[in-house]
Amino acid sequence: MERAIREAREEDVTQVTQIYAHHVRTGLASFEEVPPDAQEMLSRMRAVRGQGLPYFVMVEGDHVLGYCYATLYRTRSAYRYTLEDSVYVRDGLAGQGVGRALLAKLIERCEEGPWRQMIAVIGDSGNAASIGLHRALGFRMVGNFEAVGFKFGRWVDSVLMQRPLGKGDSALP
Q: How far is Cα 141 from Cα 163, in angstroms, rounded to an integer?
């Protein structure tokens, strides 16, 4: 079966919830400690799409392999041209290009809009896979918040990476 990236649909929410729950329970990519239920994930999906922001899934047949979306980096008006990305891949598929294809599609779509910067807030400075993925797609390291999260009995950093979208800051919006 062929893999395809498409806009997420509400019927994808069950699988999206399963993928995210795995990362919440076992990893540091998310600082949530209790996985949200499908209704909460649906509400989050609707909020992203309601702002006109992209939310994609990669599928193989009816099987969701991963998902990604963009949100406003912050809600105050001066941040209106800056987005934050989120990418999650089904357990067992890391390193198979799913995350890279999703993030590349997300960047491409966001460059079609008015946005000029994309921020990645990566949980755990030891998350070499996510840091490497973002670096490969043009993000650069801009900072590290040390010990800002506490999960699995230890302090966890947040890595900040950034890349321009379209003309970036070389022109006014």
A: 9
Can you tell me which residue has the tokens 């590290």? 144
pLDDT tens string, the chain, 173 residues long: the values are: 899 999 999 999 999 999 999 999 999 999 999 999 999 999 999 999 999 999 999 999 999 999 999 999 999 999 999 999 999 999 999 999 999 999 999 999 999 999 999 999 999 999 999 999 999 999 999 999 999 999 999 999 999 999 999 999 998 88
- Edge-to-edge strand list for the sheet holding 140-151: 3-7, 55-60, 63-72, 82-89, 117-123, 154-164, 140-151
What distance lies between CA 86 and its chain's CA centroid? 1
Question: Per the structure block, which two tokens stand in for 101?
Answer: 């294809």
